[in-house]
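Extended Data, record Inner membrane-spanning protein YciB
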Amino acid sequence: MSDSKPDPKLKTALELGPVLAFFVAYLWLKDRTFTIAGTDYDGFIVVTAMFIPVMVAATGALWWLTGHLSRMQVVTVVLIVVFGGLSVWLNDERFFKMKPTLIYLIFGGVLGAGLLQGKSYLRLVMESMVPLRDEGWMILTRRVTAFFFALALANELVWRTMSTEAWVYFKTFGLTAALFLFFIFQGKLFQTYGIEDDDTAS
């Protein structure tokens, strides 16, 4: 493990690179069929098989560079291995498409369990990036919890009712854009409950 602070560009590349590589590889191979050991696999399954070791390697590199991984990163890579592996093994793309649903349900469920105890588990993950007062953390956690459940529902609707290609676009760009826009719209909350406001006022 490296004790030095990693290059932000390299860290971003390791986090986003595998997803973008999956997207590009899918566009390249989506219309092809590969016969392996007498079984036909479409491009989506083959790309999924390639994506799993790439994601594991990228996550391992992140751990080596930063010295730690968030629980979200660990859960994500485990589910990719399990459900991606099931899709490849059973030659059934549905398992991999379910993966985002399970990720968001797990995270939403964990945050929801914390809220029932009067706690913000989101604070444990994001406090160093977004310093807020206690009330702000509880409001943000409730919103993020509801948002995760909404994303889980959206993923289910897309993969069950639309084409594989539409789902790949949704997974690569739609979910990412939704997360970005969600936090953009939390600007008022950050201003109202930000700790910096207290420091300025005192």
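Summary. The chain is about 80% helix and 5% strand.
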